[in-house]
Amino acid sequence: MACSSCSQNNHVTSTTNSNQTFCDCACGCNEVVCPVLQPCTEVIDSNCIIYTGENVSCNETTVINKNATLNNTLVNIFNYFCDQFAGILPISTVNIGDQIFGGIVVGLWNEGGVAKALIASSINLGPAPWTVIGYQGGPAIPAAQSFYDGLTNTNAIIAQTTAAAAAGYAAGAAKLHTGGTFTDWYLPSHWELNMCFNSASIVNRVLGNINGFIGNNYWSSTEYDGNSAWAFGFGNGVASANAKSTTGYVRPVRIQNI
Questions:
Q1: Contact of 223 with 137, CB cutoff 8 Å
Q2: For the whole model, what pTM was predicted?
Q3: Max Cα distance, the chain (Å)
Q4: Domain limits, the chain
Q5: How far is CA 205 from CA 93, 200, 234, in A?
Q6: How far apart, in Å, are the Cα atoms of 53 and each of 48, 60, 69, 181?
Q7: pLDDT tens-place string over residues 1-21
């Protein structure tokens, strides 16, 4: 296909790839480049644009030109659009089910331009009551009623006991977990526990039924009232407000920037 508007028509081959078999039709100096692939022959006009025609990543030079001003302009435009698209969402190779950051990935999202992952522990803990015996009947903990902030909930539950975290109750057991040597584990909130449930099929394919989720109730850190807290049945997918004195399984989680 000829470039009818050009003063001269040349099919050029890339000087960076001797195995190149196709390239863009390049017109004469100061003319537009035709967007049609043509068989390569040889460079006739030293001012013509030469395209590599290869699959390349952002910031790699894709245009080689004897005219430095034109070449720099094209490369700058290319890099500008690469930067714009890269800023929309951070590129990450992390996937649900990856065994990294001390556990297994169960959720991914972008928060204020920062890619984050919810990591669940690689093992089940418990069963255990929601809190210690002295506070299973209240009073309520207003700071432990968030549906999305499990870390704040967990810290508030432990603070109510007026003692250091202990492994005998759900919030304490989650806080003391040290998977991957990380020390920022906590009891997931209602919605964070739901993220775990939504990824349970993938988690169990990766970890198997021993270390994967089981079809029993798991505690969330979200309080319902002074006497009960939200739990989630992984066998039937039903959330319920259970008495704090009843036992449930514990799956600590943590958030990791990626």
A1: no
A2: 0.67
A3: 91
A4: 9-86, 104-257
A5: 19, 8, 15
A6: 15, 12, 21, 47
A7: 333 333 333 433 334 433 333
